[in-house]
Amino acid sequence: DVKVTQSSRYLVKRTGEKVFLECVQDMDHENMFWYRQDPGLGLRLIYFSYDVKMKEKGDIPEGYSVSREKKERFSLILESASTNQTSMYLCASTPGGIETSGGDGTDTQYFGPGTRLTVL
Amino acid sequence: AQTVTQSQPEMSVQEAETVTLSCTYDTSENNYYLFWYKQPPSRQMILVIRQEAYKQQNATENRFSVNFQKAAKSFSLKISDSQLGDTAMYFCAFMQYNNNDMRFGAGTRLTVKP
Hints:
The structure holds 2 protein chains of 2 kinds. By secondary structure, chain A is mainly beta.
């Protein structure tokens, strides 16, 4: 089974702190994603990466950055946490490369358990 | 840009009954994929069912089936013989072919009552 893990289930930080959220997948997946989940808004894409050291902005990248130094690990960084970044953060991965999403199921996203971040 | 709409924020159903969750989407593309994901309380989100737009036959997975109406851009999920373990948030999602950008609806919270 694919396993996607996130470093913390719950995290409480103060305004202005630098926050690191870690995500690790163990299935050699090419693509990794960071979403935030808010009530009534569903999941919104923050950043994604289709290869080591590659990153692409999603819909709401402001206030966030990412790092992918190794294929299995994708980190989300809040440079200076603010209260409006209080949310549930979900990491996901997919097997296929960016050119190969298609009918073979490589598009199915596998999710981590989520990190509920509270910024005070 | 593609959008996904789930018009039912909350639903409930009696155990063993059937329930249908609605989803509509907006796209000008012809090749795409549609998904239903389930997020149980305090547990990981998992894929329930997926549908390729080029397939006319509706996807089924055991008690879960979809009614895919391409012309109407509708993708509803039917859960038959509802079980207590089906209680969860359900998200409808859209992904364009050859594009890893997945779009999610706002979710429907389903409660199965004993």
